[in-house]
Write a structure and sequence with these properties.
There is one protein chain. This protein has helices spanning 14-30, 36-46, 50-61, 80-89, 102-106, 111-121, 130-135, 138-146, 165-176, 184-190, 211-230, 236-243, 253-272, 276-283, 291-301, 305-317, 322-338, 365-375, 386-395, 397-400, 423-427, 429-440, 447-454, 469-478, 481-493, 495-498, 527-538, and strands at 66-68, 93-95, 159-162, 352-359, 379-382, 505-509, 512-519, 542-551. By secondary structure, it is α/β, with parallel strands linked by helices. The strands form two sheets. A five-stranded mixed beta sheet has the order 4-8-7-6-5, with helices on both faces. The chain has a three-stranded antiparallel beta sheet with strand order 1-3-2. Helix 23 runs antiparallel to helix 24 (469-478). The relative contact order is 0.08.
Length: 552
């Protein structure tokens, strides 16, 4: 008899326990880097009653800085008024300050409420007729009220402001190592939707080593957010002025990488605006893709072909990733022809191509092809990228979750922070080299042991819904050590880009493995798919492309 899983019910105060855990974790890891004000905030918060803590967290978690007391009602907070008084006395809230921006406060009111405020500010003779007021847009009504320069007392109810949001911003940054994750991450874990690996998280593994790093990170993020808005204007002068405010190089690698990404963003916009000299200058100060590609393309427009070709050759001799190597080859070929230099004939792909005419059943094209092969006696799995990536996750599981400084900052990570940067391989080179060599010589064959030990634990490389023990066992039994070594090495070279583009289907029959990339009508091979098919060819593996024609 089938039974449904009982849904997890969260305790009413679950979010307070999560918030407390966040504060304790940051205090444990970064006690020496916290400011006097942040320590005061921690100590003061710790002395609050549960009601006051929960109300404070509720307001910190909501959008906006201002709140109407009349609208604060949460079933788990029994004495809201007492909680507000406690937060006010501890300076975690302020109330009805005269210098607050009235436009932000007006956003807290509905249009009917604004209409009432407007009427109270005007005598009947000074008002427009009631019908015109009712038809006015909320924005127009707000503007009309603002024109009267209303005082905070005009709203006839207490308005409160939540204080110390900047402290929470810093604590979230220290806990997650980024500014896009928030307290909602805890809920996924509370609900049992994610189970995370038990890796080391303590002061020895923390990301930030200096208070200055924290401040510089926040400053750079604020600058990037400012540019996000400014870039929408597409005004060359504004972008040029912003470029002059970009900071100089950082000695701390994580921050320098973020700085170079911002340089690339601004430079790309300048290039689009025709500001080639300044764009080149900024791209020259970034080593991250696509800086070299963009420099080549700009130099080509400026007829500086020899300089552009020299950069292409740098890209080819030491590519940052797969995409840069491929782009560099195409651009070098084009520039060599422009300069009348000898050009090696580009090798054409010779993939095994088949056309399948299948009845139009309305199902996904990949599933239709899978059924076609099953009827021919194959055991077929629709895995897309899950199989090879899953083998990667199993092969390097202990290395992925090894204790490396700055890699793991909190208990909620699917992978180390540097997983998709070159630092991942560089900082674990000895461990990775040893494991790859063991796989190559077939002296490491613990795929199923790792699977059984780690099943269900979140790993960014392993899709447990698709990767089964039988699939793992049959795959590795069909591949030799050299083939596994080559596939995993390719993923390690460029984890971000090479984790996609793998064939849709993998199938087995009589000890033989076959890979199939499925293409429906009008669909063509993408660059990353071609790269994987070329590797399969080099390894002598049976990989083919099936073009489907529907039979009506």
């Amino acid at each position: 008899m089938m039974t449904q899983n009982t849904p997890t019910v969260l305790a009413p105060d679950y979010y307070r326990h999560n918030f407390d855990f966040l504060l304790r974790s940051v205090r444990q890891q970064y006690h020496d880097l916290l400011s006097h004000s942040e320590h005061w905030w921690l100590n003061t918060y710790s002395r609050l009653t549960p009601d006051a803590k929960q109300l404070y967290i509720r307001m910190l978690s909501r959008k906006g800085r201002y709140f109407r007391v009349s609208k604060l009602s949460y079933p788990e907070i029994r004495h809201t008024e007492n909680a507000i008084e406690e937060l006010l006395s501890n300076k975690f809230l302020t109330c009805n300050e005269a210098n607050w921006p009235v436009d932000e406060i007006l956003d807290l009111f509905t249009k009917p409420e604004l209409l009432k405020i407007y009427r109270e500010k005007h005598s009947p003779d000074a008002r427009t007729n009631d019908q015109a007021l009712k038809q006015a847009r909320k924005a127009d009504l707000t503007a009309a009220i603002l024109a009267t320069s209303p005082a905070i007392s005009a709203f006839n109810e207490p308005i409160i402001h939540v204080e110390h949001q900047a402290h929470l911003t810093i604590f979230l940054l220290l806990f997650f190592g980024n500014q896009y994750q928030d307290l909602s991450q805890f809920v996924l874990t509370d609900l049992g939707l994610h189970i995370f690996e038990n890796y080391q998280v303590d002061p020895t593994t923390r990301l930030f080593q200096q208070r200055q790093h924290i401040l510089e990170w926040l400053s750079l993020e604020a600058l990037a957010a400012e540019y996000e808005q400014l870039s929408l204007s597409k005004r060359a002068q504004a972008v040029r002025q912003f470029a002059g405010r970009l900071p100089g190089p950082c000695t701390w690698p994580p921050l320098e990488r973020r700085r170079q990404r911002l340089f690339n963003r601004v430079a790309r916009d300048l290039e689009r605006l025709g500001e080639y000299d300044l764009a080149l200058f900024l791209f020259n100060h970034s080593a991250l893709p696509p800086s070299r590609e963009r420099r080549v393309r700009i130099l080509e427009k400026l007829q500086r072909h020899s300089t552009a070709l020299a950069i292409c050759r740098q890209m080819l001799s030491a590519p940052f990733n797969e995409e840069e190597a491929e782009v560099g080859q195409r651009l070098a070929h084009k520039l060599s022809r422009t300069l009348n230099l000898p050009v090696a004939q580009a090798l054409k792909d010779t993939f095994t191509l088949e056309t399948l005419t299948l009845p139009a059943s309305g199902e996904r094209v990949e599933l239709a092809v899978a059924n076609h092969y099953r009827q021919a006696g194959w055991r077929v799995h629709y895995t897309e990228n899950a199989l090879i990536c899953g083998l990667f996750g199993l092969a390097f599981w202990d290395i992925i979750f090894a204790s490396v400084s700055g890699a793991f900052l909190n208990p909620f990570q699917r992978a180390p922070r540097d997983m998709y940067h070159s630092e991942f391989s560089e900082r674990r080179r000895d461990m990775l080299t040893a494991r790859l060599n063991a796989i190559r010589t077939e002296s490491w064959n613990h795929w199923l042991a790792v699977y059984q030990q780690k099943q269900g634990i979140t790993n960014d490389w392993v899709n447990w819904a698709i990767l089964t023990p039988a699939l793992v066992e049959e795959t590795v039994s069909c591949l030799n050590g050299e083939q596994l070594y080559a596939m995993l090495s390719r993923l390690l070279f460029d984890p971000r880009h090479n984790r996609s583009g793998q064939p849709d289907l993998v199938m087995f029959k009589s000890g033989h493995i076959q890979w199939v990339e499925v293409k429906g009508p009008g669909d063509t091979l993408q660059a990353n798919q071609k790269r994987w098919l070329r590797l399969f060819q080099q390894l002598g593996l049976d990989a083919r492309v099936n073009h489907v024609v529907w039979q009506m």
